[in-house]
Amino acid sequence: MARKKDDTGRYAYEGLDRLLHEKARLGILTSLLASREGLRFNELKERCALTDGNLSRHLQVLHEAGLIEIWKGFENRRPQTLCRLSGAGRTRFLAYLDALEQVLRDAARAGAEPRPATVPQGWVPA
Amino acid sequence: MARKKDDTGRYAYEGLDRLLHEKARLGILTSLLASREGLRFNELKERCALTDGNLSRHLQVLHEAGLIEIWKGFENRRPQTLCRLSGAGRTRFLAYLDALEQVLRDAARAGAEPRPATVPQGWVPA
After folding, report:
1. Each residue of A15-27: pLDDT tens digit?
2. Run of H or E including B35
3. How far apart are CA A80 and CA A99, in angstroms?
4. A1, A31, A71 member nearest B119 (Cβ)
5. Which pLDDT tens digit goes with each residue over A58-73?
6. Which of B18, B73, B104 sits opposite A120 (nearest CB)?
7. What's the predicted TM-score (pTM) here?
8. Which CATH fold topology does B18-105 show?
9. What residues of B are in contact with residue A63 (Cβ under 8 Å)?
10. In A, which residues are within 8 Å of B123 by CB distance?
11. Which residues pair with A70 in a beta bridge?
């Protein structure tokens, strides 16, 4: 249990950008990464299992941050909204995914052995 | 851009347990996974680059959820707090990590090609 100086901040995961780390937004961004031509509002809603209100709110956040493009158009005379990753959004999301991979590498290195059942003698549970 | 029925909820990532997904708690849990014998409060604080107050608050949440054990003891006559994953916490965190891996698999499958620059003719940015 000796303290290793080089572990300082090792698990701070600064790269886990909170804007992108939010669970619903992570789903939206991954869907959009997988659909390079973009997705209609209703397609996104269905894939991410979000309500209209929730999806709108998250898209607004992502749009204001410049991570996605939102396009308006008509199909069969019905208004449609198309969302897709912006170039900046793509770059930032890929950087986020690198940070996420680091978490999984750290966890994998921790190994799969169960923890030992002992604590130092005389210690008591809080 | 055809809608595929089997994509419904595909990116909802229900397994991304919000309790564990929170960035600081993700760091705490990964540190603890990597230190099976547990970590002292100050070691955790340093590795996760958290303030005393922040770390205390997150440990309380994790403890109340039964994910970690907190032990109190003395070393060189000074009070110490030892934290470690509980059996349930370990199981739940490993399940969370599986969900996280799914995100990365989905993102990897999306490929690394840049998106095309075109949108349907006549569509306008929001």
Report:
1. 999 999 999 999 9
2. none
3. 34
4. A71
5. 999 999 999 999 999 9
6. B73
7. 0.88
8. Arc Repressor Mutant, subunit A (1.10.10)
9. 126
10. 71-73, 82
11. A83
